[in-house]
Design brief:
single chain; Rossmann fold; 3 domains; 7-stranded mixed sheet; binds iron/sulfur cluster
Length: about 550
């Protein structure tokens, strides 16, 4: 047994390696990125033949690659952030019906509080929707052990397993104990191909088999050590259900809570493995008059148990009268309020750290960022075509990446940011709805991730719109991962889709070219067909990093 200090994400990666991982696929997204980065480092040291760890063009292709590896009998993992699971939802939902061969684990990092995301969705809903088991570690040690277990579980039930982690676990470091790894699975193709074909006749059978697996999964979850029911010597008139990180925040307040109740310790159930352990929930609530539910994310457990328990029990969680916050993250102070305890000084309160007196530091583009020069050009072109201010004839749809920060002053260019790739389809819709100047703004990596399919639609219809691709040659926002295609491949790719070559423009994103670039951009925006304008310049931070690495190599 060894000890090492790891981030939650790294603990997941190491757990997977020790479980005999053969391949991993993913798309970068905070807070999940470090799982794959750790795996890629290990793959480098082991040699690519031993372990394959690769970024993919999006989460859907990543999960599809993993399905192929599982089909061949190998243990495989997919990594993504919570909104990535929306992109991968097609193979995710259908993958649940397959007779998984090599263990398949889908590690999804949720971001309650939206530190770096466009929503707060809770991946446990997806697990329940797809009828697949879910493991929810509450600390780095569990992140390691549960990841190992997830592969065994996947092969035992022949089902994909979702591993749900959250920002505070992903990005906090703690010492963990690790054990010797197991060997990788040998190559051995699936023995039952009907379990891998979702033609209606087979899919019906596979769906029945998925339903039949549920009883076994429930038994597994009832007996799981992470689903811990504490009744002995407890005050059973009050039940507390905690899950994941919510368990830690509850324990941080437990001494005060017990004191406030005259020494009576409430009965408790901590949940770390799903499907929900319904029998344990019923036992917890046999004598309860009130139930408190503390869970990080959306009220997944609370909503389900409202359908399980008699109405005579008051349930206080995120939906009841004494609600803990319905949005944002939990922390010990939020749980404290939910337990009805008086406020206390905490590291988060002004009494200890006078946050209010610190200057506000809103996120912004780096000084010298190429996107800043591109946005100045877009702004000037739109102002000259459609006037300043509200520009009634123009739609400026942007996308997910560093350039989303261009929505803030001093640029204030994007008017919509929805999800990966949406800018292209939205520009098309706006153009076809009748707006004169419909513009989509997207980064090179996001374009490849999921903007390209909407561009094919627009090319087929020759929609009068302009797609602006901000090509900084890197996936900057998530930590400078390599884009799937180098910049020089963008032009032939787009021409290959059928765009007229005279309306594919490549401009250098530079301040001293503002006037010249504005004239060229305006011409394309005014063109009553489809045009694509690529603003090119390497991300400044990636450039600095690259130069430093080159200098180090020369030494
Ligand atoms: S990391 Fe790169 S792309 Fe992102 S804001 Fe900074 S310079 Fe611009």
């Amino acid at each position: 047994m060894k000890e090492q200090a790891l981030l939650g994400d790294e603990a997941v990666a190491l757990g997977a390696i020790h479980a005999g991982l053969s391949s991993a696929y993913g798309y970068p997204g905070t807070p999940s990125t470090e799982i794959m980065e750790y795996l890629m480092e290990k793959a480098k040291s082991e040699g690519a033949d031993a372990l394959k760890a690769r970024w993919c063009v999006n989460e859907k292709t990543a999960l599809e690659a993993a399905l192929g590896a599982s089909f061949a009998g190998k243990r495989t993992m997919v990594t993504m952030k919570h909104v990535g699971l929306n992109v991968a939802s097609d193979p995710f939902m259908n993958g649940a019906l397959l007779g998984i061969k090599g263990g398949l684990v889908i590690a999804v990092a949720d971001d309650p509080g939206m530190h770096s995301s466009q929503n707060e969705q809770d991946s446990r809903f997806y697990a329940s929707f797809a009828l697949v088991p879910c493991l929810e570690p509450r600390n780095q040690q569990e992140a390691y052990t549960m990841t190992r277990e997830a592969f065994d579980l996947s092969e035992r039930f022949r089902i994909p397993v979702l591993l749900r982690i959250c920002t505070r676990l992903s990005h906090a470091r703690s010492r963990i104990r690790t054990e010797a790894g197991r060997d990788r699975n040998p190559l051995s193709k699936t023995d039952n191909k009907t379990q891998w074909m979702l033609l209606p006749a087979y899919a019906k059978q596979n769906y029945i088999s998925l339903i039949e697996k549920q009883a076994g999964l429930k038994e597994w979850s009832e007996a799981h050590s992470a689903n811990k029911l504490e009744l002995e010597g407890r005050d059973r008139s009050l039940g507390v259900i905690t899950s994941g990180l919510g368990g830690n925040y509850y324990e941080e307040n437990l001494d005060d809570f017990v004191k406030s109740r005259g020494g009576r310790i409430p009965a408790r159930l901590h949940i770390g493995a799903y499907p929900l352990p319904e029998a344990s929930i019923r036992r917890l609530c046999e004598k309860a008059e009130r139930l408190i539910v503390i869970e990080e994310g959306q009220p997944v457990i609370e909503e389900k148990i409202r359908g399980i328990l008699p109405h005579s029990i008051t349930i206080d969680g995120k939906l009841g009268a004494a609600a803990m916050n319905r949005t944002g993250e939990l922390d010990p102070d939020v749980v404290r309020r939910g337990l009805g305890l008086p406020e206390r000084p905490s590291v988060l309160s002004a009494a200890v750290l006078p946050l209010a007196t610190l200057p506000a530091r809103p996120p912004q583009l780096c000084r010298g960022c190429p996107h800043a020069d591109s946005y100045e050009t877009v702004k000037k072109a739109v102002r000259e075509l459609d006037g300043a201010g509200g520009h009634p004839n123009t739609a400026l749809n942007s996308d997910i990446g560093c350039y989303a920060l261009g929505a803030l002053p001093p640029y204030s260019v994007p008017e919509s940011i929805v999800c990966m790739g949406a800018s292209v389809g939205m520009a098309r819709g706006a153009a076809e709805a009748g707006l004169k100047y419909a513009i989509g703004i997207i980064g090179d990596s996001t374009f490849l991730h999921s903007g390209i399919t909407a561009l094919i639609d627009a090319i087929a219809a020759d929609t009068p719109m302009t797609l602006i691709i901000l090509d900084n040659s890197i996936v900057a926002m998530t930590g400078y991962q390599q884009t799937m295609l180098s910049s020089d491949k963008l032009r032939p790719l787009i021409l290959g889709l059928g765009l007229k070559s005279e309306h594919l423009l490549e401009l250098e994103a530079k301040k001293n070219l503002l006037e010249e670039n504005t004239v060229k951009l305006k011409k394309e925006i005014e063109y009553r067909g489809l045009s694509v304008v690529i603003f090119k310049r390497e991300c400044l931070e990636a450039f600095r990093k690259r130069r430093k690495a080159e200098a180090n190599n020369e030494e």
